[in-house]
Amino acid sequence: MSSISGFIKLLRSSPPLVRIQLLSALCVTLVGFIGLNFSQWEEYTPPDASKFIAVEGRVSGQPASWENNRSLAKFSVAYKIDGVRQGKPIYTYWELYRQSGLRINSKVLLTVERVKEGSIVRALATLEGRVLYDDKFSRQVIAWNNESIKRFTVMAGAISAAVAVVTLIIALRHRRTLL
Question: What phi, psi does 84 have (nearest 5°)?
Fold first, then answer.
């Protein structure tokens, strides 16, 4: 059962009770995925410039395409605040990342805001002063992320509802044999 067609064949060849159980398990799994995906929801917090500090950081992760927008590179930066090492993901356009010449362990200049939960990177610039990430772009990345979560939630919710309806129809059609 490595495909949807295999799952459908299994459903067709199974007795009604097994069909109901399989479809119920699928429905619960989809709802679980919705919950896991929704846990990635982010809220934008407006910056408080009085808590900004400038720190030197280093690129600590290889860039990869961001799953929500393939035109963006997602990579990590590491920096220390009060002797404690922190790492955060950063997003920028691939073209800007390539032009900047950044590699793992490259030094970067960060504008970081201290918050209760630790810190938020508000801006990243190369040593040459080229800004690759700022708060306005961060807000856009959060909006793209949340839009992706909304689309997935609607799609998976609709599929889950359809599976639940099919499960109910099967149960109603075979209620005499199920009792």
Answer: -105, 125
